[in-house]
Write a structure and sequence with these properties.
This protein is an alpha/beta fold and about 650 residues long. It is about 45% helix and about 20% strand. The chain starts with a helix and ends in a 14-residue tail after the last helix.
Amino acid sequence: MFEDFLKGIEVAWDEFIKEERISSIVSRVVEDSWKRCKRNGVDPYGGKGSKVSDEVFFETLRINDDLITTAIPIMENLNSIVLGTGFVLVLTDKNGVILHVVGEKGVKEDASRLNFVPGSLWSEELVGTNAIGTCIKELTPIQTIGAEHYCKEHHPWTCSAAPIKNQNGELIGILDMSGYCLAAHKHTLGIVVAAAFSIENQLSLKQSYELLDTTVESILDGMMILDNDFKIFRVNKVGNRILGIKQGQLDGVDARHILGDKIFRDKNSFQGRVDWDFSIGNNRIPCNIRITSIDIDKSMKGMAIIFREMKEVHNTVNVVSGNKAIFTFENILTENERMEKAIRDAQKFSRTRGCVLLEGESGTGKELFAHAIHNFSSRNNGPFVAINCASLPKDLVESELFGYEKGAFTGALKEGKVGKFELANGGTLFLDEIGELPLDLQAKLLRVLDDYVITRVGGKISKKLDVRVIVATNRDLLEEVRRKSFREDLYYRLNVFNVKIPPLRDRKEDVRILTEHFLKRLNFLYSTEKRVYAEFFGDVKNCQWKGNVRELENMVQRAFHLCEDNVITKELLPCDLVEQWKESMDINMDTIKDSEKEVIIKALIKNKGDVIEAGNMIGVSKSSIYRKLKEHDINPKSYKQNSHN
């Protein structure tokens, strides 16, 4: 598991820093880098980039002007795809000086604390093992995750970098994609390599017409080369496959006959990617297109059309955006019979194609079930796209679900936008809080569920999709039907298979295993060994848990971070939870106090009056045991000679 790898590499890092011992979990590239860092005297507890002087930085920008102007459009295009996934894209020169950064504001701000900003040097000699610096050393694509970084300050991060080389194979720069460690994904490095390849290819087009054939065939997308009169004289093999044509079939054809005139007048086509259809005979091939002018000696000699089939674009978006089901039925922890039955039912329904309705209060784990159903189904290799109907403005729900064409409404993106149904094609669409869907949208959703054909807002072309729909609600939908706030026909269309998830208060035997699970995860993340005191579960088992599993998880997190010792006590529970406990306990509180006093005295006798050891025995922190002694008027010295040991 990924968490096991993170923990293992953290241990391996600690062993190397303290004992210079290399674990088998460490890759050859990382091992070599660590040893270089050790020899170079890199501080493993440092790790901040060093700002070069303004004079040096401006000269570096001037020297790398061609690289920067070529790379920025590709970086911005890639950023528009990965936006919202917690990553930044970074371009450096051949020495590791950062030239340009694009990405989310919050991630950039966190990265800036390490001087991960333009004008900073990120060589291995300065900041230790990192994707940029180590890529410069190895001249090969590198991904460093967590403690694979030599400096501890970088352990919360993951970085993937690929070299950018010129026509002679000489290193001219590095393209890097960095983000939070827990968002690491094996596909990230491949995406960076492909983008670096595109930069190299764009540079090759600008630098030499003689390398045209090599460039066209090496690019991962379809490519079509035009002269100044729009005549096609080259389509690469990928382009032929996408368009379903033979090599040379379009040679000499005017590109406007298959793309129309408008795309060549649209500035967006030259500044970014647009969704556009090729018309080849009677076939329409939806693609994502970008047009680049081919300039030699500052004179335009033609155009290159780079295109990718829309279904491939959707696959890339789903991978980078995390449209993938993470959890399985093994992640649903329970010892409750009703919950176990719900799991068995959900497993049976997973093998079908029909809609599944998940019913349960907020916080019971409906999304967990949706993930598990997808992963247990034959669609598990397809996308899993989730959307919360309650979180969307009413006037945007339709465009989010079905997408829209460019110019469909005021404020729409110029290039249009793909909808969630299209992104989920071949996989599963999870509609959470379905009861919040406006009535007018309910009718449109019903129509789509009848034949799975969608039309984008403002569009005229219908698309047949292969999507399995799972919905969830914390409402009583039948009652909503009676109130006329939910369509009866849609209810029965969605309620093909029904899974009712019981609230936590009806499965209190799960409180223990869930608490231990949440605590184990927190201990792993923060490298601690905290535990709950012995009577904890007796205190909370009668709580109402109105927020269900989510409330329990929040309570564990709160207590974990407030706990100064290694033992979480009742005093760290939220006041409202303590009140729930008191109200539900139908016993005399004086009896509880007497029992508590008796337990403390027995622990003191057993430990010969040692207060700390007595506290450890009964799972009470140092500060709490002394408070309890004062509260019960107990003198520990009285028990030093009364040990039964």
